[in-house]
Amino acid sequence: MVVFGFKTFYEVFLFILSVALAITIYQRLPMVRNAKLHMFNNYYHASSPTYTQQYAVGVRKNALIIAENNIFTSGIKYSFKDSYGTLYSSGNSDSSSSGCNSTTTSSKPFTVSYSYSLDSTSTATSNVTSYAGSGYTM
């Protein structure tokens, strides 16, 4: 499920990214600036002999990110890169080669106004690689 929305031009955007499969993509998955992002149960994998994957999630100016139970495999260089925003990271499986290059906070930077359930990273890996794009429901 990928949901995008906003209230007014001047308010911070809210994006929800869940059950996404990102394979062999270079970077900016997504790059977050002036927005709120709640991401959970996503799978990031890179294995291209041609391109070097630089980073999965860009934490840019005024970004507010809640990242829960995402999977970053060894083909990813940085799971999160830059520290211009606020990143709350919990339960992620990070096997990226350089890890998280962003400063994290111990509390969520915003409150989500919807209910959701987190899969374990092993269940998320299985669900995403099997069902992403073909009707997986949260």
Quick rundown:
A hairpin with a 7-residue loop joins strand 1 and strand 2. Helices cover 8% and strands 34% of the residues.
**Cα-based radius of gyration, to the nearest Å:** 14 Å
What is the structural class?
mainly beta
For the secondary structure, the number of strands is 12
Described by strand count, sense and barrel closure, the largest sheet is: 5 strands, mixed
Instruction: Note the run of SSEs as H and E.
Output: EEEEEEEEEEEEH
Span between termini: 8 Å
Arrangement of strands in the largest sheet: 1-2-5-8-11
What does this structure look like?
The chain has one helix at residues 121-131; strands at residues 2-5, 13-18, 21-23, 31-32, 35-40, 43-45, 55-59, 64-68, 71-72, 78-81, 86-90, 93-94. The chain has 138 residues and is mainly beta. The protein is globular, with a radius of gyration of 14 Å.
Give the SSE layout.
Layout: E1 2-5, E2 13-18, E3 21-23, E4 31-32, E5 35-40, E6 43-45, E7 55-59, E8 64-68, E9 71-72, E10 78-81, E11 86-90, E12 93-94, H1 121-131
Parallel strand pairs: 2-5, 3-6, 4-7, 5-8, 6-9, 7-10, 8-11, 9-12
Antiparallel strand pairs: 1-2
